[in-house]
Amino acid sequence: MQTMVHDSTMSAPIPNRAPAGGGTVMAFDFGVKRIGVATGNTMLGSAHPLTTIAFADKARRYAAIAALIAEWQPALLVVGLPSHMDGTEHEISKLARKFARELGARFALPVELVDERLTSAMAEMELAQAHVKLSKRKALVDQMAAQQILQSYFDARPTRTSAV
């Protein structure tokens, strides 16, 4: 089965890939050391932080993701695509694209890529403003960044543009 990964960071329009009639969407803030995860529902258009996956080996990371997917039953996956402030990609962008392709292939679900510039910095700022101790922020920042990625997806849905 070929899985399509749609990239909403590009400019060519594609049909809305959101689940028909609403449904759960799961978002990922991909990182080499940690992956933040958030969930939300298309009918509510609201994202919520879920967890941070911090396993070093790929097998345990995907086992944790499989358990979350089994529990939450998302109809769509969203992966944040990092880039420089000018929009150009860097090495982690390639890894995030690979992660998105692997998610789609492993779980037979559609995957959208969404621009994630500054989401980790914004999450860090929110945690600091909430007076969360520095020692506790590391465990929360990635899942809050995933929440921001998913919220961006929800907020942009009516006018979102993508390319395959």
Write the layout of secondary structure elements.
Blueprint (H helix, E strand, L loop, with lengths): L4 E3 L16 E6 L5 E7 L4 E8 L4 H15 L3 E6 L9 H17 L3 E5 L3 H11 L4 H23 L8
Parallel strand pairs: 1-6, 2-5, 5-6
Antiparallel strand pairs: 2-3, 3-4
Helix pairs in contact: 3-4
Low-confidence stretches: 1-18, 159-164
Q: Please summarize the sheet with the most strands.
A: 6 strands, mixed
Broad shape: globular
Number of helical regions: 4
- Per CATH, which architecture? 2-Layer Sandwich
Instruction: Give the spatial strand order of the biggest sheet.
Output: 1-6-5-2-3-4
Q: N-to-C SSE series?
A: EEEEHEHEHH
Q: Give the structural class.
A: alpha/beta
Helical percent range? 40-55%
Please provide a written account of the structure.
- Mean pLDDT is 78; it is low at 1-18 and 159-164.
- This protein has helices at 58-72, 91-107, 119-129, 134-156; strands at 5-7, 24-29, 35-41, 46-53, 76-81, 111-115.
- It is of the alpha/beta class and 164 residues long.
- The chain starts with a strand and ends in an 8-residue tail after the last helix.
